[in-house]
Amino acid sequence: MASKTSIGLVLTLGVTLSGLAYAQGHPPATPAVPSDDPYLWLEEIHGTRALDWVKAQNALTEKQFMTSPEFTRTRAQILQVLDSDARIPYVQRLGGYLYNFWQDKAHPRGLLRRTTLAEYRKAHPKWEVLLDVDALNKAEGKRWVFKGAQGLKPAYDRFLVSLSPDGGDAVTVREFDLRTRSFVKDGFDLPIAKSQIGWIDLNHIYVGTDFGPGSMTESSYPRIAKEWTRGTPLAAATTVYEGKPNDLAVSAFHDRTPGFERDFVTVSTDFFHSVMYQRKDGKLVQVEVPTDASADPHREWLLVQPRSPWTVGGATYPSGALLATNYDDFMAGKRAFTVLFTPTAHTALSSYAWTRHHLILNVLDDVKSRLEVLTPPAKAGAWAHAAMPGAPAMSTVSVAGTDPDHSDEYWLSVTGFLTPPSLERGVLGKGQAETIKTSPAFFDASNVEVSQHFATSKDGTRVPYFEIARKGLKLDHMNRTLLYGYGGFEVSLQPFYSGSIGRAWLDRGGVYVVANIRGGGEYGPRWHQAALQANRPRAYEDFAAVAEDLIQRGVTSPAHLGAEGGSNGGLLMGNMLTQYPQLFGAISCEVPLLDMKRYTHLSAGASWIAEYGNPDDPKQWAFIKTFSPYQNVNKATHYPPVLFYTTTSDDRVGPAQARKMAAKMEGMGLPHVWFFENLEGGHGAGADNKQAATMHALAYDFLWDQLK
Q: Is 683 a catalytic residue?
């Protein structure tokens, strides 16, 4: 699932040190386009006419919202949070060191650094800087944005570093030597493309990239996986697997777990279906689980998560369950599984993580976290189950890291809407975890409380939402309220701490609400599948139901209710704008999908057909057009003020969507339509903290101003 998420619509909130690096290569050829769309020229991302339009729009928005003392204050308050030295430097254990990527005022593009556990325990650890991205930029005259680094086990003295020229998904991959603190001359080096890479050993890597015409899928991800030997040209790399043009992506990876070294190829046919093969003795042997299930080999075990009911070996396992079996037995044809988790009407499996001898489950119970520890039997017998200490009410506990090759060490991140994050470390079987780091409070939460409510959607479904508001809130329909949602790709919105939201919204007396609508993963695959393709309107009905519940309860009124969402959540905002304009006083629509007729031909849009459907199929367009804001906007309708923001370098959704929607609405003579486009930042909207603070401040100040 991690690899699929990285190529999806999920907004990136941070940078990981490992994992697949997906980025933009040559875009797929654009087919004939409709002649009745007068704004197609805005799809030319770097076209002179399009950029001139962007500059003119930016100037209007800057003058209206970004020159006031209040905006300057809001941006400064957010930037203080993002740049604060008191933030937790989250770490990932690689061998004997803890690694961290850090950005602040002095290092806007960031430092890749490491330290020891003993040093990390100190209030002010001494860090060993490995790569200074700002210094690299100065030396090379570039504006690189760090996108991750993959280390070579077990020594971790070589890394494959991914760098984006503008913050988009497109990266160059360069081999880095930690011993010399320099890039390896004549080492592994990939030009900017949408690439997937992974170590096999010091002299070999798996690579999927833009090898030339036809080597990328229609979704613009690698179609061919190859094995590349050090010292040979990329053109000489050996093909391991070649997918079809309409596959989503193809990747290969090597599992370096000591004693269980194995090679795999994964073919993602769409966002929710894939086939895994083990590469053995030059042959590919399929891991025969359903294509909509995830298969996760680990040491002697195979874990399977079916996304639909699976009947196998004389038993039927429900969607959202977690199953375990012996990997070698499974590959030999046996189909005996142990059920490790079974979902209920209120619970879903959020994630899991291995330690050396145990498996930690993160379970959502009505969107609130609880952890369980499972221990596999030494030989025959049942898995042991034990509860881990619970989290505070209305909070999120997640496993931030483990050391599965060597120990039962685990790291926990604990947070909540009003609880500053803390980072705990423990060793299973050796007592309670200890708190290693705690973030300071960035806003005063003493007079604020969190409550959970349930709205009833159009079809009778109970939809949960969290409300963060002042204690003793007057239910007089007068409170400025900001409603946030996502509702797609099985992504769950769990309680989280945000100093930015606290300072820019709660400190002002605003109410903040998070809606857990269908399309997300709060209740597992069933919650997601309930809003797929033709059922997509269920997500929008859910969000509208939450808005109506807030109004009915007296929390707010349409004039004081704002909505915000980005990416897939931007599509949600577009539908709130066009289908439910009477419910909102203002909407912030960020890095959005909006033209669902053209989305499969723009940037990486073809990769999301499994989520939305294929508009090129007339039968599917019949339902897609019902939730395509670009086609449904009407000049005779009264719409609330709306802000569209995007980035030129967003090579996932692309800026054309927001550009065209804003231009179309303005062309209809509709008032209160605002647009802003940042040059850098990719799909995350900011290449550094200052840019991110600017974009967040723009959204919050726009909404606050319009909802008065």
A: yes
